[in-house]
């Protein structure tokens, strides 16, 4: 029989031996059994049941085999909230929280759209942080939008969900917005070697990879901005760390009067495109 503290120690040792992040042991314990740091301080010496220990050990083994721990628990943490995730959705990243931060800093009201929403993390967070925003979220994947709907209901965030590819859900309904946000697939196939094994093996490739050296979705969205953006509209993209100048040039080649800025993340890497669109 092991206590929660002992089970955690065992899991950290196992993960460390296989060069995995040992903090995942704590995250699993928290998401599976609601044993966060405070609970461990108060109840960590309590015995973990045989069934719970078996489930915990199996989860640790799956992480060792590169399976994302968020898919094991069905939960991911983003901007201080918990979102449901599954294999149909990309797992929200810390870097994307910076995109949300910059949108909230620059946009105080109006109609906005999150293109390729996945879990809904971006669009739902924006609505929850600023109730004045009229938020639309879109995705081509019906499976992903089912997760979006579950997160919307769980978080009580009222947004409009639309199914379809890129700008089509907006153009089909003659919807124009003041702000367009997207974290589209932007990884080139040639960059696979730079990615973690768990991402390549298990996260949906349709949400990761893009043709044209990763620029396919940016180009298509940028070319269609006049059909979905109101006058003086704003655009925010999350980008790969090598793509700043490429996406900026792509934007200005289509809309040369626009103001386009490449914003770096906390690690000093190009991460966000912010554009004030002028037709």
UniProtKB/TrEMBL annotation:
Residues 99-196 form the Methyltransferase small domain. It catalyses: L-glutaminyl-[peptide chain release factor] + S-adenosyl-L-methionine = N(5)-methyl-L-glutaminyl-[peptide chain release factor] + S-adenosyl-L-homocysteine + H(+). Substrate binds at residues 183-186. S-adenosyl-L-methionine binds at residues 116-120, 139, 183. One of its GO terms (molecular function) is nucleic acid binding. PROSITE patterns: N6_MTASE (PS00092). Pfam families: MTS, PrmC_N. Transmembrane segments: none annotated. Its EC number is 2.1.1.297. InterPro entries: DNA_methylase_N6_adenine_CS, HemK-like, N5-glutamine_MTase, PrmC_N, RF_methyltr_PrmC, SAM-dependent_MTases_sf, Small_mtfrase_dom. The keyword S-adenosyl-L-methionine applies. Keywords: Methyltransferase, S-adenosyl-L-methionine, Transferase. GO terms for biological process: methylation. Residues 6-74 form the Release factor glutamine methyltransferase N-terminal domain. The keyword Transmembrane does not apply. CDD domains: AdoMet_MTases. Belongs to the protein N5-glutamine methyltransferase family. PrmC subfamily. Methylates the class 1 translation termination release factors RF1/PrfA and RF2/PrfB on the glutamine residue of the universally conserved GGQ motif. NCBIfam families: hemK_fam, RF_mod_PrmC. This is Release factor glutamine methyltransferase.
């Amino acid at each position: 029989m092991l206590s929660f503290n002992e089970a955690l120690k065992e899991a950290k040792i196992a993960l460390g031996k296989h060069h995995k992040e040992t903090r995942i042991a704590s995250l699993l314990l928290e998401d599976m059994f609601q044993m966060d740091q405070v609970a461990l301080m108060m109840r960590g010496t309590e015995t973990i049941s045989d069934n719970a220990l078996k489930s915990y050990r199996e989860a640790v083994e799956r992480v060792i085999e590169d399976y994302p721990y968020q898919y094991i628990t069905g939960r991911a943490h983003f901007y201080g909230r918990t979102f449901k995730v599954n294999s149909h959705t990309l797992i929200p990243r810390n870097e994307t929280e910076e995109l949300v931060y910059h949108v909230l800093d620059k946009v105080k009201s109006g109609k906005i759209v999150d293109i390729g929403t996945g879990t809904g993390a971006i669009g739902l967070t924006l609505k929850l942080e600023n109730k004045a925003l009229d938020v639309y979220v879109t995705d081509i994947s019906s499976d992903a939008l089912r997760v979006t709907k579950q997160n919307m209901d769980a978080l009580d965030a009222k947004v409009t969900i639309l199914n379809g590819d890129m700008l089509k859900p907006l153009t089909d309904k003659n919807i124009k917005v003041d702000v367009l946000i997207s974290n589209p697939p932007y990884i080139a196939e040639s960059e696979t070697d730079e990615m973690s094994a768990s991402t390549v093996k298990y996260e949906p490739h349709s949400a990761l990879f893009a043709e044209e050296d990763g620029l396919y979705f940016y180009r298509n969205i940028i070319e269609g901005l006049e059909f979905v953006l109101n006058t003086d509209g704003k655009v925010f993209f999350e980008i790969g760390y090598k793509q700043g100048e490429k996406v900026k040039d792509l934007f200005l080649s289509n809309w040369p009067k626009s103001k386009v800025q490449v914003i770096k993340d906390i690690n000093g890497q190009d991460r966000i495109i912010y554009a004030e669109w002028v037709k």
